[in-house]
TrEMBL record, chain A:
It comes from Anaerosporomusa subterranea. InterPro entries: Asp_de-COase-like_dom_sf, MoPterin_dinucl-bd_dom, Mopterin_OxRdtase, Mopterin_OxRdtase_4Fe-4S_dom, Mopterin_OxRdtase_prok_CS, MopterinOxRdtase_cofactor_BS, Prok_Mopterin_Oxidored, TAT_signal. This is 4Fe-4S Mo/W bis-MGD-type domain-containing protein. Pfam families: Molybdop_Fe4S4, Molybdopterin, Molydop_binding. Its cofactor is [4Fe-4S] cluster; Mo-bis(molybdopterin guanine dinucleotide). It comes from the Bacteria. Residues 40-96 form the 4Fe-4S Mo/W bis-MGD-type domain. NCBIfam families: PRK15488.1, TAT_signal_seq. Keywords: 4Fe-4S, Iron, Iron-sulfur, Metal-binding, Molybdenum, Oxidoreductase, Signal. PROSITE patterns: 4FE4S_MOW_BIS_MGD, MOLYBDOPTERIN_PROK_1, MOLYBDOPTERIN_PROK_2, TAT. GO terms for molecular function: 4 iron, 4 sulfur cluster binding; metal ion binding; molybdopterin cofactor binding; oxidoreductase activity. Belongs to the prokaryotic molybdopterin-containing oxidoreductase family.
Automatic annotation (TrEMBL), chain B:
GO terms for molecular function: 4 iron, 4 sulfur cluster binding; metal ion binding. Keywords: 4Fe-4S, Iron, Iron-sulfur, Metal-binding. This is Polysulfide reductase chain B. Gene3D superfamilies: 3.30.70.20. Coiled coil: none annotated. It comes from Anaerosporomusa subterranea. InterPro entries: 4Fe4S_Fe-S-bd (IPR017896), 4Fe4S_Fe_S_CS (IPR017900), ET_IronSulfur_Cluster-Binding (IPR050954).
Length: 763, 191
């Protein structure tokens, strides 16, 4: 018999060794109450177990959701899905969800609540928010959430109230990449075409654990067609396990490696000269800046052999432009993060991989296509007409997008999340007194957990809208339960990538508990506060029809297929075959095509100051004196310390899924990965307790001894070690990575560091 | 006259990323109670000496032997093989004696705590395969690591894959002729 115990024993990489706790009811049985043999309905929708938002279909039997799988008509995923997506049904029927609106009756964080009606909850919130506005001004309320289609409802509510302080989670994730792309291209809307690529270098990008199904399939396609994957990561991830090469780089030195690759591309004339001449600005500055960054120099910094660096550069150049240096995700090891992302982007441009299959490409949303053709040929998502927002009296506390502020380049639409607890605690630049956290859990997902908790406790008002009693919700004054994505209808979501497309979220089953959809909650709450004019829709049909410009046929297509597309094939502006296809569909675009069969005017008409791709950025030069990336060695761990890094597992999403029954059962806790050398110095074996301490936190962790991490580095999967007793399964299980990380804000891009030096001792 | 079907499956461990989408979909599709599983993927590793490491992936489920030892030991006839080569359990006839569990060298069977009957992978025979669909695990797998189909049809995906792949039968020396075969990890050094 395959026991769970034997499974765990062998699954060092994924699972933890915890004896089976029988503290939760049998969700599988409960959920699948209907007979599968009966008549099944299929509802098309899109997932919300992570931010990839894969198109799905859910099977419904006798009014119960019984299997969530991928949407078979969506080509990029072809009906497939990951374990998190399939587990959506166990979340849906979980009795540990928040079932009714709650108002706090005990001390903050004590866990004493009164169940109330939505009316009572709205009245309470409206009164408190009105009080904060009168006493401190509307800017004293801050509003945070995950990025996604739901974000606009929170932001509209915030702006209508009069506060400029809105943010999402991007500054604790990929914001450096966003700012790097915007500085270089005038937009961050770019993608990578893994499936047609011949050589992928991943710098800590962990495709097979930070799962985006379409990208997983793309990378696997690349490998299957004989392409090469190189994983550069201090830890042997599951991506490293599938890669042709694993190079365990010294954490925090990726920039040295990339600069050395760029050095070889230029030194040996391997770069795409035509591309650089035609479409870019600042090559000479890049050339001058990388002269001294030889592979021999980089070997000393990174621990990767000079010969390997030389070889990888040459192998990439040999298959250019179908070669990708992945510009990555959440791997901020040093304050030089903006430099790293810029250097990676420059490397890609030296390979000339922009707008070709197997390289990088601009996202082709309706706006892009219509702009290209010069008239509206593709329907875009339209919005409602609302009154103008009141002008905020004060600038944002985080300075994002504020002219003249050091964080000027960080997009105001994303904001800088970690600035909010700082403003609460230091009252600088002015105090934040109220916080509205919508499906957002800063206590676990922001660095320096203890400081965030301190901040949450100091607030006059904390409102949390979520589906679980999260670690932030436990400190709230009011908790509003939202319906899960399987229980609510929603509007269209722009899902454009290679082609314009929208996905549609549809209700699979009626709400299991007394919960409501966000578009309803924000409308009702706003009406209570006299701000109803900013939410002028009446129901979901109204929202959808308005979004599709009144076109019923598009709404119908969305409901039936789960998405709307326009029969386009992916367009690469520097690929004559796809350009020819495009012109066949939109003959008005014929005049754009040059003698090579390209539409490359766009590449010299970008929204950058020079209108070209800026390898050297005058904007960056002005903001912090470095227009091209240069290397400055950074020491994060001190002598005697280990470098603590963290990462994603394919079984959980940030601070979101650890209490979801099926996912919890697959991975209930994490452990601290350490190399046998490190372990023998400490005298610890696997599952021994170790005390891990940084400048900001201390916790006991279970050791997992493995050759799969550098001897100077320790690693754990993020999102565990939960503090909310309301998360009955996940409570106090495993290591909270963010407890160890000091709050910081990296220059230019506003991202927070995700690493720290730690000392370890045996307990 | 069409030839008899003979269903088989290929598990390419090189394409498997251990994401557990298959085991979760199996749980949902087949209403498998918590704490028992018809299907798991074991991740074994990292193994080796830093930095020369490998991680192996193993599918653990019924391998649908042609000569299934679980069938003849069943005293009530609850354990049987369908005409298309799928070993199944009729839970109405199962008395929970566990002979079949003991007889299975692949440790693929367990007692279902809800029905009290022996339970295991069925290739989703009743709910999907008999309706012309692929088993849940095959249809959900993001990387295409699983190929399923009729091995008697020379043009089926599975037949074509078996011709071109270096698949091995688990515990082949036992002579049970399993119909779930594995492409071993080439990072293990044999490619």
């Amino acid at each position: 018999m395959i026991t769970r115990r034997s499974f765990l024993k062998l699954s060092g990489a994924v699972a933890a060794s915890l004896s089976v706790a029988s503290m939760f009811p049998d969700i599988a049985t409960w959920a699948a109450g209907g007979k599968v043999e009966g008549k099944a309905d299929f509802v098309r929708s899109f997932c919300e177990m992570c931010t990839s938002r894969c198109p799905i279909q859910a099977k419904v039997v006798d009014g119960k959701a019984v299997l969530v799988s991928g949407n078979p008509d969506w080509g990029a995923t072809g009906g497939t899905l990951c374990a998190r997506g399939v587990s959506g049904q166990s979340q849906l029927y979980d009795p540990q969800r928040i079932q009714k609106p709650l108002i706090r009756v005990g001390e903050r964080g004590e866990g004493k609540w009164k169940e109330v009606s939505y009316e009572e909850a709205y009245d309470y919130i409206a009164k408190q928010m009105q009080g904060i506005k009168e006493k401190y001004g509307p800017e004293a309320m801050a509003f945070g959430c995950r990025k996604g289609p739901h974000m606009s409802y929170l932001y509209t509510f915030a702006k209508a109230y009069g506060s400029p302080n809105t943010h999402n989670h991007e500054s604790t994730c990929p914001l450096a990449r966003t700012v790097g792309l915007e500085v270089t291209f005038g937009t961050a809307g770019l993608g990578l075409d893994y499936g047609n690529c011949k050589y992928i270098v991943s710098l800590g990008r962990n495709y097979f654990e930070g799962i985006n199904v379409a990208q997983v399939r793309g990378v696997m396609n690349c490998i299957n067609k004989g392409g090469k994957l190189v994983s550069i990561d201090p830890r042997y991830s599951l991506t490293s396990a599938k890669a042709h090469e694993w190079l365990p780089i010294k954490p925090g030195t990726d920039l040295a490696l990339v600069l050395a690759l760029n050095h070889v591309f230029i030194r040996d004339g391997l770069y795409d000269k035509d591309f650089i001449t035609k479409y870019t600005e600042g090559f000479e500055a890049v050339k001058a800046s990388v002269t001294s960054y030889t592979p021999a120099w980089a070997e000393k910094e990174t621990g990767i052999k000079a010969a390997d660096i030389e070889r990888i550069a040459k192998e990439m150049a040999a298959v250019k432009p179908k070669a990708i240096l992945d510009w990555g995700w959440r791997t901020t090891f040093t304050p030089e993060e903006f430099e790293l992302r810029r250097a990676i982007i420059i490397g890609n441009m030296l390979l000339g991989n922009l707008e070709v299959p197997g390289g990088s490409f601009f996202s082709k949303g309706p706006g892009f296509i219509n702009g290209l053709v010069g008239k509206p040929v593709v329907q875009g998502i339209a919005g409602f007409k609302t009154p103008p927002f009141p002008k905020p009296a004060k600038p944002r506390v985080d300075g994002a997008g504020v002219k003249g502020h050091p964080m000027e380049l960080a997009p105001a639409g994303d904001g800088i999340a970690q600035a909010v607890p700082e403003s609460i605690l230091t009252e600088k630049p002015y105090p934040i007194k109220g916080y509205f956290a919508y499906r957002y859990n800063p206590v676990v997902t922001m660095p320096q957990t203890n400081r965030v908790i301190e901040a949450m406790k100091k607030l006059d008002l904390l409102v949390v809208c979520d589906i679980y009693m999260s670690d932030t919700a436990m400190f709230a004054d009011v908790v509003l339960p939202e319906s899960t994505y399987l229980e609510r209808d929603e509007g269209f979501n722009d899902y454009s990538g290679g082609v314009p497309a929208f996905t549609l979220r549809q209700q699979v089953v009626k709400p299991v508990y007394n919960t409501r959809a966000h578009w309803q909650i924000f409308k009702e709450l706003s009406e209570k506060m006299g701000l109803g004019a900013y939410f002028p829709y009446t129901n979901i049909d109204d929202i959808r029809l308005t979004q599709m410009g009144g076109k019923q046929d598009l709404v119908k297509m969305g409901k039936e297929k789960g998405f709307v597309n326009f029969g386009m094939k992916p367009l690469f502006l520097r690929d004559k075959n796809s350009v020819a296809e495009f012109v066949k569909q939109f003959p008005d675009a014929q005049s754009l095509v040059n003698e090579q069969g390209y539409i490359d005017k766009y590449l010299t008409n970008l929204k950058t100051p020079s209108k070209k791709i800026e390898l050297m950025s005058q904007v960056a030069q002005n903001v912090f004196g470095r227009g091209v990336p240069v290397y400055r060695p950074i020491q994060i761990a001190e002598s005697g310390q280990q470098l603590f890094i963290q990462g994603k597992t394919g079984l959980h999403t940030n601070g979101h899924t650890h209490n979801v029954p099926w996912l919890h059962e697959l991975m209930p806790e994490n452990r601290l990965w350490m190399h046998p050398e490190t372990a023998s110095k400490l005298g610890v074996k696997t599952d021994d307790l170790v005390e891990m301490a940084s400048t900001v936190g201390k916790q006991q962790v279970k050791a997992y001894i493995t050759e799969g991490v550098r001897p100077d580095t320790v690693f754990c999967y993020m999102g565990f070690g939960r503090v909310s007793p309301g998360l009955k399964r996940a409570y106090k299980k495993g290591v909270n990575s963010n407890l160890m990380i000091p709050t910081s804000t990296v220059p230019v891009c506003g991202i927070t560091l995700q690493t720290a030096g730690v000392t370890l001792k045996k307990v | 006259m069409a030839t008899q079907k003979r269903y088989g499956m290929l598990y390419d461990s090189n394409k498997c990323i251990g994401c557990q989408a298959c085991s979760t979909a199996c749980r949902a599709e087949n209403k498998v109670p918590d704490k028992v599983s018809r299907l798991q993927v074991w991740i074994e590793g990292p193994k080796g000496k830093y930095p020369d490491l490998i991680t192996d992936f193993h599918r653990k489920s019924c391998v649908m032997c042609d000569s299934a030892p679980c069938v003849p030991v069943c005293p009530t006839g609850a354990s049987y093989t369908t005409s298309d080569g799928v070993t199944l359990v009729n839970e109405k006839f199962c008395v929970g004696c566990k002979y079949c569990i003991a007889a299975c060298p692949y440790q693929a069977r367990f007692l279902n705590p809800e029905t009290g009957a022996a339970d295991k992978c069925t290739f989703c025979h009743e709910t999907r395969v008999s309706r012309g669909q692929k088993p849940a695990c095959v249809s959900i797998c993001p990387t295409g690591a699983l190929i399923f189909g009729d091995m008697n049809d020379s043009k089926s995906d599975i037949s074509l894959a078996l011709k071109s792949q270096r698949a091995v039968k688990p515990k082949e020396h036992l002579g049970l002729k399993p119909k779930v075969v594995t492409v071993p990890n080439w990072r293990g050094g044999d490619a």
